[in-house]
């Protein structure tokens, strides 16, 4: 049975995502991607135009932040909007560990591809900043510095990414996406003095 073009493209993207996360972008060859995908080595150039464009296509297909506009109703309310962002970032990073790892690698190492990553990630954090700013104007959030509030939200939302470094300090069970999201969100909203947060 022959593979259709969309099937083969997706196999290449899944293979590249897996290998980029495991070996890094620089440590992964086009040949390795094609071997993992069971594809002819010429297909990366044919379908995507090279390895760099494969990375871009991975974000186009798998990064959930590109769907922000589908949630405009949430963003009319700062608490709901910020809550959605925090929940979805945590769920994404715990469910799609491969793409989450790629983002972390490219950003921490400030690679030539970091600009591509930023172009996808930045709109999500810009929306979080907007929610914080709007929430303060409406008297829903209480903080002194917008920049510091955003850094706090980012730090709390991404803290679980450092679990490898602090594993001995934590309980042995794995982090569950929904539970982690709810605990983190509770912590953030309480710190911001959001309505309904426990004192």
From TrEMBL:
DNA-binding region: 29-48
Domain of life, per lineage: Bacteria
DNA-binding listed as a keyword: yes
InterPro entries: DNA-bd_HTH_TetR-type_CS, Homeodomain-like_sf, HTH-type_TetR-like_transc_reg, HTH_TetR, Tet_transcr_reg_TetR-rel_C_sf
Protein name: TetR family transcriptional regulator
Signal peptide per UniProt: none
Species this chain originates from: Paenibacillus ehimensis
Key words, A-Z: DNA-binding
PROSITE patterns with a match to the protein in the record: HTH_TETR_1, HTH_TETR_2
Keyword Heme: no
Limits of the HTH tetR-type domain: 6-66
Pfam families hit by this protein: TetR_N
SUPFAM superfamilies named in the record: Homeodomain-like, Tetracyclin repressor-like, C-terminal domain
């Amino acid at each position: 049975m022959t593979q259709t073009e969309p099937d083969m493209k997706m196999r290449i993207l899944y293979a590249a995502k897996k290998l980029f996360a495991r070996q890094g972008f620089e440590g992964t060859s086009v040949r390795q991607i094609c071997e993992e995908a069971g594809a002819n080595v010429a297909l990366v150039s044919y379908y995507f135009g090279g390895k760099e464009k494969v990375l871009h296509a991975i974000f186009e297909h798998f990064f959930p932040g590109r769907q922000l506009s589908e949630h405009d109703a949430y963003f009319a309310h700062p608490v709901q909007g910020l809550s959605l962002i925090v929940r979805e970032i945590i769920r994404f990073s715990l469910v799609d560990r491969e793409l989450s790892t790629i983002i972390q690698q490219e950003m921490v190492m400030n690679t030539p591809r970091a600009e591509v990553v930023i172009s996808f990630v930045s709109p999500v954090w810009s929306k979080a900043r907007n929610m914080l700013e709007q929430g303060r104007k409406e008297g829903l959030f209480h903080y002194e510095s917008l920049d510091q509030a955003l850094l706090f939200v980012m730090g709390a939302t991404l803290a679980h990414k450092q679990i490898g470094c602090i594993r001995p300090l934590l309980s042995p069970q794995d982090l569950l996406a929904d539970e982690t999201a709810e605990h983190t969100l509770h912590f953030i909203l309480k710190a911001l003095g959001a309505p309904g947060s426990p004192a």
